[in-house]
Amino acid sequence: MKKYHIITAALLLALFTSCNNVIYEENHPIPDSNWQRFEAEEFNFSIKNPKDCYHVVASVRIDTTIVRIKDIPLVVNVSSDNGENRMFYSHLPLVDKKGVRRGSCAGQYQTAEFRIREYFFFNNAANYTLTIKQGTECQDMPGVNSVGLRVEKADLDQK
User: Fold this and answer.
1) DSSP labels for 93-129?
2) Pair 72, 147: CB distance under 8 Å
């Protein structure tokens, strides 16, 4: 029983400390629930201390009766108001290795998130714009209701 209390306390501590590390979080609704292949979702935030390390987390809310793929390829661009510009490819898995849907589900809707960059350093204290495009290149993605971004301070001691 004592072990149960220790585990519960550790989980609660981890939950509350991770919430305090969030420096930016926003979700954008997708018009007509159809993520256009050439449309980028744009997120704007400030980094005050470039010596800190961050996790960059993307999320989507989808209609599982329409979206049948296992993951969504992403094209991500990070730019700052003082000239930093980086682009990278990532993906947002919707199912785990066993084929079970990741994230939370409410009826036919699923919300999934994934760290698209872990232990990421921004080069400058600046205002940043991060854009996310779906990377299928040849088709729109009906059934995507929203796209989100969260930037959270990472603890290098846990790496």
Assistant:
1) ESB-TTSPBPSEEETTEEEEEEEEEEEE--SSSEEEE
2) no
Tokens 């930037």: give the residue.
151
DSSP for residue 81: T
The CA distance from 57 to 55, in Å, is: 6
Residue 41 CB coordination number (10 Å): 21
Tell me the per-residue pLDDT of 1-23, one tens digit each, with 9 for 90 and over.
454 444 444 444 444 444 579 99
Model confidence pTM above 0.90: no
The tokens for 75 are 């094209």
Residue with tokens 């969504």: 72
**Which letter does DSSP use for residue 52 in this model?**
S
- Between CA 134 and CA 114 the distance in angstroms is 14
